[in-house]
Amino acid sequence: MNKRPDAARPLTFRFILLAAAVSALASIAPSAHGDSSRAAARPASTATTIEPSKYVGPGGCAATSCHGSVKPRADTRIFQNEYSIWVVQDKHSRAYMALTSPIGERIGRILGIGKSEESPKCLACHALDVPPEARAKTFDLSDGVSCESCHGPASAWLGPHTTRGWTHAQSVAAGMYDTRDLVSRTEKCLSCHLGTQDKFVDHEMLAAGHPDLYFELDSFSAVMPRHWKIPRESAPGVPEAGADDPWFGVRDWATGQAVQLRAALDRVAWRAHGANWPEFSELQCFACHHDLTPPEQSWRQERGYPGRRPGDPPWNASRYAVFAILAHEIDGATATQLDAQMTQLAKQMSVLNPDRDAVASTAAAARQLADRLIARIQAQPYDRAMTARLLLEISGHAGEISGQGERAAEQAAMALDSLFIASSRNAPPANAAEIRAAINGLFQLLENPSTYDPNTFAAQMTKVNALLR
Ligand code: HEC
Ligand code: HEC
Ligand code: HEC
Ligand code: HEC
């Protein structure tokens, strides 16, 4: 588990992660998933003043008759083995331990923050670091990222939520976080997997040894692994009304893309007014972190430096590179405006000393468009035809996407992977094995990011595209 997060690690690690996603998803029965966003009832606005909610810790959920069953149960609406999954398979249960590992401690030493496991800078994402007055007696910091990190403080709903007729909306009104809503769910994941102004991973932390952060909702949910039923059930074995969308993987991918673009735009905007600027982790890592080659072998020199002064590090636009295709698919007019804003932002960011105000204001303008797209994406139905079009369009933009760097290529590989899994679950093509092998080939090309070559990657994408036709 504790592999070194050195320069080579993120890469290998990423490949393992994605390979795991494939097998995890393959085991999901050909069934459906609710439109979490629309089906979820809203909390009653008339919530009476309740005592401030406290965090009780995962022990409060662990009884075998609650969420600590060893095996999933078929006679209940939920599996009831959520605790067992979390404690055995989910890395979140080991998040605190990562801080006490040799690498975790060394990061603390390099940054001069003392013991990592005592530093709020690290605990913010690796544990449930809530103020003392919000900790119940059973609370323990070393539980890492536990149930209430995602589901919210339980003291006010822990007892009542087991009673007959109690609804999700009632729990939400009593302080439960609404993970059923896909946008809220993604925002929750991104608070740690992309960072916020209060908790973040910057280049200083990367240089000290922290792995780089990246995210894709559908793959990451599979790897976690999921401890919830798809589709969600209203009674044992009975899918909740409207919760049987067989294209849930496409919806998860689409929502995740849109929400992470918005969060990334917010991040570059607040960073533009931060202490360290330019912030290297907003730029393309491998524009700086690559080996030099003789001039006749350099694809960089062959390509030239369109849109920037030769040698200036380019902005990392990977959170838009693939999403742009979906944006055009669902709302062409907004997407065209967003294209213009993103081109502008890339130009402003890809200079040695980006103008802070200009960057923040372009990012804010682009954010409004991303916001509009999120609303569209939630209302959008997903089906076989749309998934097939997306697969072809993404793989068809081989040169354009791969030219935007290793991180953009990685998003393309994850997108094709997610969309292909959704499509083969519902309508497997005759050449599924060949397509699978070709997509795996994309991940292999990302294994050593410092040697990433856009031409080879584009050729592999074109191969995937030909097989999909
Ligand atoms: C913004 C949230 C955030 C903050 C703040 C943060 N981390 Fe992390 N950390 C993560 C995430 C997310 C991962 C997992 C990354 C992945 O695998 O995609 C991680 C992974 C790690 C790992 C690798 C764990 C493993 O299993 O190999 C170590 C070590 C680590 N963090 C240490 C630290 C230390 C030390 C600090 C404080 C200086 C810190 N982190 C602060 C979010 C954060
Ligand atoms: C990293 C975030 C995260 C952690 C940690 C986490 N969960 Fe979840 N949980 C989710 C998400 C996301 C869902 C899916 C939301 C949905 O469909 O309701 C979910 C769903 C569930 C469900 C099913 C709800 C339903 O109505 O179908 C239960 C029960 C549950 N979690 C219990 C737990 C317990 C108990 C723990 C701790 C042992 C835990 N979770 C830890 C994110 C998390
Ligand atoms: C409170 C912060 C926090 C939240 C919220 C959170 N994570 Fe994490 N996540 C982490 C940290 C920290 C790690 C690294 C744990 C380790 O490796 O020790 C991690 C690791 C992971 C990993 C394992 C990656 C690997 O190395 O294999 C996956 C997958 C993941 N998270 C998915 C999710 C998803 C999906 C959500 C939202 C439903 C989510 N996380 C919400 C903090 C968080
Ligand atoms: C503008 C150039 C630049 C960009 C962009 C950049 N870095 Fe760095 N990085 C550096 C420099 C300079 C160092 C310090 C190297 C040294 O002191 O030997 C460094 C150090 C590091 C180290 C430690 C090096 C080692 O050998 O252990 C890691 C890891 C790292 N960066 C990761 C990243 C990641 C991940 C990204 C993208 C999110 C990134 N960097 C983006 C310039 C950059």
At the fold tier of CATH, the topology name of the domain at 9-246 is Flavocytochrome C3, Chain A, domain 2
| Outline | globular
Q: Profile the largest sheet.
A: 2 strands, antiparallel
How much of the polypeptide forms β-strand, as a percent range? under 5%
Q: Quickly give the structural class.
A: mainly alpha
Q: Could you list the spans in which at least 5 consecutive residues all have pLDDT below 50?
A: 1-13, 19-49
Total strand segments: 2
Please identify the oligomeric state: single chain
**How much is the average pLDDT?**
89
Q: Can you tell me the CATH class of the domain at 9-246?
A: Mainly Alpha
* Amount of helix: 40-55%
Q: How would you write the strand order of the largest sheet?
A: 1-2
What is this structure, in a nutshell?
By secondary structure, this protein is an all-alpha fold. The protein has 23 helices and 2 strands.
Structure notes:
It is a single chain. The chain has 469 residues and is an all-alpha fold. The chain contains 23 helices and two strands. Strands 1-2 form a two-stranded antiparallel sheet. Helix 12 (248-271) runs antiparallel to helix 21, helix 16 packs antiparallel against helix 17 (332-349) and helix 22 (432-444) packs antiparallel against helix 23. It is globular, with a radius of gyration of 22 Å. The model is unreliable at 1-13 and 19-49 (pLDDT under 50). Bound molecules: heme C (4 copies).
